[in-house]
Structure formats: structure tokens, C-alpha cells
Write a structure and sequence with these properties.
By secondary structure, the chain is mostly helical. Helix content is 61%, strand content 0%. The longest helix is centred in the N-terminal third of the chain and has 28 residues. The chain is elongated. The two termini are 24 Å apart.
């Protein structure tokens, strides 16, 4: 089943909220486990996402900076380390 453009816009906030919630859980897990982020760039993205607050305007897409920050963290080996120690945090398998 395919969604119309209007339906996608209607669900945008919920989808964005899910993306940000999972990302924040990942960021929190990294912080709780004292895992060292390897690159300065990823560390900058980590700090940005740690403080990010989703815009309550349901029609606003996630900005490009959020997308690049999430992408950079997923490419960093820190993510694998966070998942190895997920039993020490509230990070679930579904965050993958």
C-alpha cells in the first residue's frame, strides 16, 4: 500500500519524532557507556544531536544538518560499541 503525498505530510511529525527519539536513545547510550567517539567531526555531530529538539511544527521536515549528523554517527565505529554495551542502557535492538 502506497501513501499519498498528503498522507506522508500528515505522518511527517510522527516519523520525525521516531527518528529523533531513536537517535537520542543512541546518543544517550553512548554517553552512559563512556564510549569515546573517534573523530572530531562525529563528536561535533554527537554534541549537536544530544541537544537537538524536534520542531513542534508538524509540517517542518528534519533539516539537512540533522540528517548529516545522524549519518555521520552511523558511519562511526562508536555505534557498534554502543550496541555491544546496550544491556547497560535503555537502547533496544529496534533502534537499529
Amino acid at each position: 500500500m502506497s501513501l499519498t503525498k498528503d498522507e506522508l505530510i500528515d505522518y511527517r511529525y510522527n516519523i520525525n519524532q521516531c527518528v529523533i527519539t531513536c537517535t537520542k536513545a543512541l546518543v544517550k547510550s553512548i554517553g552512559m557507556s563512556n564510549i569515546r567517539i573517534e573523530s572530531d567531526t562525529s563528536n561535533d555531530h554527537y554534541g549537536y544531536l544530544r541537544g537537538y529538539i524536534l520542531n513542534a511544527d508538524s509540517n517542518a521536515p528534519l533539516n539537512e544538518k540533522v540528517g548529516k549528523a545522524i549519518d555521520a554517527l552511523w558511519k562511526d565505529s562508536t555505534i557498534a560499541e554502543a550496541f555491544k554495551s546496550r544491556d547497560k542502557s535503555d537502547l533496544m535492538d529496534s533502534a537499529q
